[in-house]
Amino acid sequence: MEDDAPVIYGLEFQARALTSQTAESDAIRFLVGTQSLKFDNQIHIIDFDDENNIISKSVLQHQAGEIWHISASPADKAVLTTCYNKTSESRVVTCGAVWRMPPEWESGSHESPDDPHNSHNPQNLELLCHLDNSSHGNASCVLWEPMGDGKHVISLADNHALLWDLTESSTQATISSSATLEGKGQLKFTAGKWSPHHNCTQLATANDTAIRGWDLRTMSQIYCIENAHGQLVRDLDFNPNKQYYLASCGDDCKVKFWDVRNINEPVKTLEEHSHWVWSVRFNHSHDQLVLTGSSDSRVILSNMVSISSEPFGHLVDDDDLSDGEDNHQDEKTQEPLQDSIISTYEEHEDSVYAVEWSSADPWLFASLSYDGRLVINRVPRALKYHILL
Amino acid sequence: MDGDICATATTPPDSDPARKRRVHGMLKLYYGLNEEGKTVDQAESMNPCDINGTHFDPEVYLNKFRRECSLGELMDQESCMVKQIRSLDSDMQTLVYENYNKFISATDTIRKMKNDFKKMEDEMDCLSTNMAAITEFSAHISGTLQDQHAQITKLSGVHNLLRKLQFLFELPARLNKCLELQAYSQAVSSHRRARCVLQQYSHMPSFRGIQDDCHAIMDKLAQELRQKFRDGGSSAKDLSECVELLLQLDEPAEELCDKFLIHAQSRLETNLRGLEAETDILEFIDRGCNEFVSSLCLVIASYQELFVNRPQEGNLASKNIPQMAIGKLHAFVDAMATCYFSLVERRIQEEKSVGDNSLLVRALDRFHRRLQAVAKLLPGSAVPSQGTEIVVRAARERIKQYLAALQSFYLDSLRDVRQALAAPRLATGKDAPASLPELLSSLSASILNQIKSVLASVHLFTAKDITFSNKPYFKGEFCSQGVRESLVVNFIKFVCQSSRQFCESAGDRGGSTPPALLLLLSRLCLDYETSTITYILTLTDEQFLVQHRSPVTAVAALCGEAREAAQKLLKHYVKVQGLIISQMLRKSVETRDWVNTIEPRNVRAVMKRVVEDTTSIDVQVSLLYEEGTRKAHSSDSSKRTFSVYSGSRQQTRYAPSYTPSAAMDTNFLSNIHKLFSERIDIFSPVEFNKVSVVTGIIKISLKTFLECVRLRTFGRYGLQQIQVDCNYLQMYLWRFVSDENLVHFLLDEIVGSTAHRCLDPAPMEQSVIEVICERG
């Protein structure tokens, strides 16, 4: 069973920001934001044709500045947020904004990706509203309410977490509540994640080496994992199926899995990367699959069976199992549950700052390195069938 | 004969003693008595002219004379011969006369004897008649005395009977008296003598009366004996006497056994109670041996004497007594020994101080030795084997204690080293690095010494003069499983494991473990891998003659573990040191406003600090690790290569900025560049040499620098400052690493990335940079 070769797409600019188009459940589509100080920045919409192994792209201009973080609305395919650097009068400010993609981009891109007209005159994003936080400092990321109606976002700016309400058309944003991290020195949120559990009332943030949980109803801290990592925490992700489980990664080259009910010790620690781990993502459907990207230029896919919600390697609520398959399952339960590295992907040659699962195909993921290389990979087939059957 | 006489006749008759003897000799010759004459005879026999020889021939002799001699001579010869014949004749006459006298006296004697015999015959006849008369008389007398004799016999029988009866009648009184005098044994023997008779004639009322009396008295006596027995105040000898008497009195043996044992038990228990007060182990065991064990032996011996080895004389219903008694004895001894053993074991467990093992071993030896006495006395008993088990358990426990002691010693040593590492830095500042190898050697030596002394202590268990050392456990399992595995191997494993724990516990937040300690431990583990483990194990095997009957940990496995630990420690050292430098660099990049910075005039202080720290790390590592190999340097590494990228490379990088299709080219070029340069593993495995260690640290630091730079935005002067800083690092760092291209590459990346993140990329002239850097 040969696995398909990875598909590589090169951007002209350096890039850090990657997201899958969350609201899209049919097409495999990723959004990449570029970083360039000298040219107009772009958002690349990358469509992957799984059957033909072909990538098609379309480019939207993001003239506001270089993009540090990108996030797609879970409700409206066309709506997204970015965090971008704005330089003015030798001052660099990072802002957040909500954008709408022009309606024509889809038709234009699919006709001919190499159309000179298209590339020379790329369409602009339509600004819906600024998440105006100049009073609160530099935005590090903007988070959409998971599975929400696209009306709520949180932005993390320096030491503030701001909850915004968007109007129906998303053209106006108002701060509904906020929380501030108080403490010695210059505290700054480096990463955050909105929990999809508990009715979306919880938020996890990272600052320096600590991970904090927040209750959004009261905007108060509910837990704090001091020294979660030896050094800076770079990213967080919630297990989509186990409400108390959280993954974190950081500059100590480790990936840690936490049960937030018991924050003294991580449930599990992975130490496979040889440099800072910048991104960690649970697979949306099969949470034993964990993807990590690191500045050692590697992407690692791990199979964390022992702490997954599917301890036997397949979905618990799988109703249509025939008897034969049941027997098969029994055989599998006899195998020891062992966490393992499924694969290490070495297609990148520069630091990998972002990895993301596709929202449409649970067996497919993309990773983005600083030199602008986007690699689309699949979970090895053998493992896929092992999990499914 | 004729010749003889002739010769004699011819010899002149001179009568000197010699001649007389010769004549006597001749007579002897004649009667065949001669002995000495034989040889003469033989020598002269052949000569027919010898006048004294047997072969004398008168004719030859005469002829010879006639031929040889003159007439005168012949005349002389003749007269001489006549003289000799005459003397011989007279000799013969004398002889015959003498013999005749003897014949006469012999005849007289015989005649006298004949007369005497006749007289004697008469006397004998007289005697025989007298004897016959006596016989007759005697028969007569005995016939008359017959009646009286029978009467006397009867009377003496009656007398005996009466004596016995008297004994019987007196018996109660006598017994009473004995009772009063406490002469129990006499009473019992008296009673025993009378018992059968009394039994036999018990149908007669008078005897029954006596019997009843006796019974009553004996009951009382038995009562008293029992009382005495019960009181237990008496000595063992008294006691055994008591028991013997009671047995003779048909007391049930079982009951006696029980009582005897109960009594013995109370005494032994007081012994045991006395033991509990003892503090010193040796005294404890001594006292245990001398009091408890010897009393126990005494009890066993007297018990056996009393109940088991009794001659089966009595017709007591005693068929089963020995068996029953032995069974009881075993149960008793086992029970007592269990009490004793539990006491001993508790005491041994209290023996925690590991200072002097010989005391404990000696105590155990004594303990074990004394139990052999019990084994001899009571062959089937489980006591000695239980004793051996206690010794074995004590030995095991001891090994555990030694392991714990070794471990705590090791940890203490580490604490000392840690303090030594910390202290001089506070005091003088520069002594610390110098003493690193000394610390290592002293640490390693003291651990080795400790191991040796522990081995020596443990070795006492197997010394030849120790009785239990030839038990199979001490010959086999103790050596291989106990000493080698549980003690030595476990300790080595502990060293490795505790070293590894340093990596784990200190993993977060830089850790509290001083990096120098990590380095030192890593070297220690490496030394263990290369030599120490082999040495220790060989030493152990030799000292204990370990026979590997059961599977043991291989040296290679231990070495592997040590190497792994060393590797991990070194890696952790690199990580920790790298982190320290990284943190400096990160803070320096993060906290500065790079857009609005001023034109660089100096190398930033943090860079100098980085170089200083790297240098001191280099020194520190070189104290413990070898130099290692590096690629050949170019003649002027610090400058030449740097100018390459700051000159030509940079131009190719920035040139496209002014053309519209620029971006593609930049990426293309940088990708091409990366295609040919090796991938850099930032946290790659560290080798055991200085260059590799320092290279690892520098790699980590520079990579951090790179990542931090990429997160910032720079102004023109920001870029120039980074250029200056990188040039400075280049000047000093190349010499530390194995491959200087690595430093070039990373610094190149940093400057390149900075240029990318620069709003107004206008690089500084290389010459200016160099001037600034040289100024420091």
TrEMBL record, chain A:
<dbReference type="GO" id="GO:0016567">
    <property type="term" value="P:protein ubiquitination"/>
</dbReference>
<feature type="region of interest" description="Disordered">
    <location>
        <begin position="311"/>
        <end position="338"/>
    </location>
</feature>
<dbReference type="Pfam" id="PF00400">
    <property type="entry name" value="WD40"/>
</dbReference>
<dbReference type="InterPro" id="IPR040323">
    <property type="entry name" value="EIPR1"/>
</dbReference>
<feature type="domain" description="EIPR1-like beta-propeller">
    <location>
        <begin position="7"/>
        <end position="301"/>
    </location>
</feature>
<comment type="similarity">
    <text>Belongs to the WD repeat EIPR1 family.</text>
</comment>
<dbReference type="Pfam" id="PF23609">
    <property type="entry name" value="Beta-prop_EIPR1"/>
</dbReference>
<protein>
    <recommendedName>
        <fullName>EIPR1-like beta-propeller domain-containing protein</fullName>
    </recommendedName>
</protein>
<keyword id="KW-0677">Repeat</keyword>
<dbReference type="GO" id="GO:0051049">
    <property type="term" value="P:regulation of transport"/>
</dbReference>
<feature type="repeat" description="WD">
    <location>
        <begin position="226"/>
        <end position="262"/>
    </location>
</feature>
<feature type="compositionally biased region" description="Basic and acidic residues">
    <location>
        <begin position="107"/>
        <end position="118"/>
    </location>
</feature>
<dbReference type="InterPro" id="IPR019775">
    <property type="entry name" value="WD40_repeat_CS"/>
</dbReference>
<feature type="region of interest" description="Disordered">
    <location>
        <begin position="104"/>
        <end position="123"/>
    </location>
</feature>
<dbReference type="GO" id="GO:0060341">
    <property type="term" value="P:regulation of cellular localization"/>
</dbReference>
<feature type="compositionally biased region" description="Basic and acidic residues">
    <location>
        <begin position="325"/>
        <end position="334"/>
    </location>
</feature>
<dbReference type="InterPro" id="IPR059104">
    <property type="entry name" value="Beta-prop_EIPR1-like"/>
</dbReference>
<keyword id="KW-0853">WD repeat</keyword>
<dbReference type="InterPro" id="IPR001680">
    <property type="entry name" value="WD40_rpt"/>
</dbReference>
From TrEMBL, chain B:
<comment type="subunit">
    <text>Component of the Golgi-associated retrograde protein (GARP) complex. Component of the endosome-associated retrograde protein (EARP) complex.</text>
</comment>
<dbReference type="InterPro" id="IPR014812">
    <property type="entry name" value="Vps51"/>
</dbReference>
<dbReference type="GO" id="GO:0042147">
    <property type="term" value="P:retrograde transport, endosome to Golgi"/>
</dbReference>
<dbReference type="GO" id="GO:0015031">
    <property type="term" value="P:protein transport"/>
</dbReference>
<comment type="similarity">
    <text>Belongs to the VPS51 family.</text>
</comment>
<dbReference type="Pfam" id="PF08700">
    <property type="entry name" value="VPS51_Exo84_N"/>
</dbReference>
<keyword id="KW-0333">Golgi apparatus</keyword>
<keyword id="KW-0967">Endosome</keyword>
<keyword id="KW-0175">Coiled coil</keyword>
<keyword id="KW-0445">Lipid transport</keyword>
<dbReference type="GO" id="GO:1990745">
    <property type="term" value="C:EARP complex"/>
</dbReference>
<dbReference type="GO" id="GO:0006869">
    <property type="term" value="P:lipid transport"/>
</dbReference>
<dbReference type="GO" id="GO:0007030">
    <property type="term" value="P:Golgi organization"/>
</dbReference>
<keyword id="KW-0653">Protein transport</keyword>
<comment type="function">
    <text>Involved in retrograde transport from early and late endosomes to the late Golgi. The GARP complex is required for the maintenance of protein retrieval from endosomes to the TGN, acid hydrolase sorting, lysosome function, endosomal cholesterol traffic and autophagy. Acts as component of the EARP complex that is involved in endocytic recycling.</text>
</comment>
<dbReference type="GO" id="GO:0007041">
    <property type="term" value="P:lysosomal transport"/>
</dbReference>
<dbReference type="GO" id="GO:0048193">
    <property type="term" value="P:Golgi vesicle transport"/>
</dbReference>
<dbReference type="GO" id="GO:0005829">
    <property type="term" value="C:cytosol"/>
</dbReference>
<protein>
    <recommendedName>
        <fullName>Vacuolar protein sorting-associated protein 51 homolog</fullName>
    </recommendedName>
</protein>
<keyword id="KW-0813">Transport</keyword>
<dbReference type="GO" id="GO:0016020">
    <property type="term" value="C:membrane"/>
</dbReference>
<dbReference type="GO" id="GO:0032456">
    <property type="term" value="P:endocytic recycling"/>
</dbReference>
